[in-house]
Write a structure and sequence with these properties.
8 helices; alpha/beta; binds calcium ion; binds uridine-diphosphate-N-acetylglucosamine; UDP N-Acetylglucosamine Acyltransferase, domain 1; 2 domains; Spore Coat Polysaccharide Biosynthesis Protein SpsA, Chain A; 23-stranded parallel sheet
């Protein structure tokens, strides 16, 4: 099969410099959704017709081209003279011996199942159109039938008042026999209300040529909804998120409110996972059995092991959290964080590029960066690893069973030996030996003769 994706429209109503098909839905460009769905049908040829935005669309397509799939080709449509004219730009790319499926870069949520039904309806010699009955068909092409058979498609602006009463509309998505398609497109004219070359005019030509015209219907109306404005983009985003939420619920994930979750990538959940409201998941996130994610947390490319608890308002990015660990509230785990089992990271603690072994704790107000921390270590409130001298970064090593007193600074590179204790307020600039108390702090004194100053009396 050949697939042609039309994506040359300007998208004026988006009020944006970004070409319409590059606007993100669930964190991914609209056009990428269409390409991903098209690829599930394993097309031999896949051609994207673009127009506005310079090289932005072909550049995005080129990034998708590395991989196991057949390469996607792009063709520029300039100027844009209508949907029929757009498909013409792809013709040199198409294999005549297989049918051609036409999709739209701004219609992101069509399911592969619906497309497969349409392709099956078309077989090898029919023209098949994906149609839906709409309560309000205004502005869309109407399917004109006689004795139940499709005779033509008429655009709103060209329709008679009687045709405007028709509620079955053209989604735009169709499958055509390719050799016929080439002939039909070559015969299009633009003598219509909009002065455009209408793809839809191939239907009347198919009827005239005796080629059967059939239809298939999507499982839901939103599958053929297009994006022309930010309002429509927001509506489809919610629809898509609700679909994802429903799929998670079906798998047994406990969502406290399926209307308040955003998955912008792949969220893989084990059994008995619970997710509170307002959480955002980006990239690939894995939540193992029994994980709880508190309200308003953001997880990006993260792996959370079984039984871990993420309390509210955490930001976790490119990090691994070990089994039964407790994170937050208000914790930030930055890229390269690897926590082993039963690690506790509390409020206002930031961890970056650090490994923390089992049963260690940093419960309040700390920065741990470029550090290797052993097991059963306690990092006191206000501890900072000074990993950066303004030019280079250095590592801090804290061995097993250490106790780091509150408000200590560890000036890397530095090692705290196994079982060592640092007194509160220590500025550690040399290694601390194992098993000993190391402290750097001015001696505390009390001045017996001191009196608090009093205000001078006015004369
Ligand atoms: C088209 C159909 C109409 C259908 C409707 C569904 C035609 C003539 N009409 O309407 O029957 O109900 O879609 O939404 O086909 N595009 C290009 N190049 C162009 C023109 C359009 O690439 O020169 C792309 C647009 O980017 C868009 C799609 O084709 O993705 C549809 O164009 P649009 O103008 O929105 O649809 P209509 O022509 O109004
Ligand atoms: Ca148009």
């Amino acid at each position: 099969m050949n697939v042609v994706i039309l994506a040359a429209g300007m998208g004026k109503r988006m009020q944006s410099a970004l070409p319409k098909v590059l606007h993100p839905l669930a964190g991914k460009p609209l056009l990428s959704h269409v390409i991903d769905t098209a690829r599930t049908l394993a097309p031999g040829k896949l051609c994207v017709i673009y127009g506005h935005g310079g090289a932005a669309v072909p550049d995005m397509v080129a990034r998708l081209n590395s991989g196991a799939h057949a390469p996607i080709v792009t063709a520029l449509q300039e100027p844009q003279l209508g949907t029929g004219h757009a498909v013409m730009q792809a013709l040199p790319q198409l294999d005549d011996s297989v049918p051609t499926l036409i999709l739209y870069g701004d219609v992101p949520l069509t399911s592969a199942e619906s497309l497969k039904r349409l392709v099956a309806a078309a077989g090898n010699g029919k023209l098949a159109i994906l149609t839906v009955e709409q309560a309000n068909p205004f502005g869309l092409g109407r399917i004109v039938r006689e004795d139940g058979q499709i005779r033509s498609i008429v655009e709103e602006k060209d329709a008679t008042p009687a045709q405007r009463q028709i509620r079955e509309i053209n989604s735009g998505i169709m499958v055509a026999p390719t050799a016929h398609l080439k002939k039909w497109l070559a015969a299009l004219s633009n003598h219509n209300a909009q002065g455009e070359y209408y793809l839809t005019d191939i239907v009347a030509q198919a009827v005239a040529d005796g080629v059967p015209v059939v239809s298939a219907q999507p499982s839901a109306e939103w599958e053929v909804a297009g994006v022309n404005s930010k309002v429509q983009l927001a509506e489809l985003e919610r629809r898509h998120q609700l679909n994802i939420a429903n799929a998670l619920l079906e798998q047994g994930v406990h969502l406290l409110d399926p209307a308040r979750i955003d998955v912008r990538g792949e969220l893989i959940c084990g059994r008995d996972v619970s997710i509170d409201v307002g959480c955002i998941f980006e990239g690939r996130v894995e939540l193992a059995d029994g994980v709880t994610v508190g309200a308003h947390s953001v997880l990006v490319n993260a792996r959370i092991a079984a039984g871990a608890t993420i309390k509210p308002f955490c930001h976790i990015e490119e990090a691994v959290v070990g089994a039964a660990s407790v994170i937050g509230p208000y914790a930030r785990l930055r890229p390269g964080t690897e926590l082993a089992e039963d690690v506790h990271i509390g409020n206002f603690v930031e961890i970056k590029n650090s490994q923390i072994a089992a049963h260690s704790k940093a419960n309040h107000l700390a920065y741990v960066g470029d550090a290797t921390v052993g097991s059963r270590v306690n990092i006191g409130a206000g501890t900072i690893t000074c990993n950066y001298d303004g030019a280079n970064k250095f590592r801090t090593v804290i061995e097993d069973d250490c106790f780091i007193g509150s408000d200590s600074q560890l000036i890397a590179p530095v090692t705290v030996g196994k079982g060592a204790t640092l007194g509160a307020g220590t500025t550690l600039s040399k290694d601390a030996p194992p098993g000993k108390l190391t402290i750097s702090r001015g001696k505390q004194i009390t001045i017996e003769s001191w009196r608090r100053p009093v205000k001078a009396k006015k004369a």
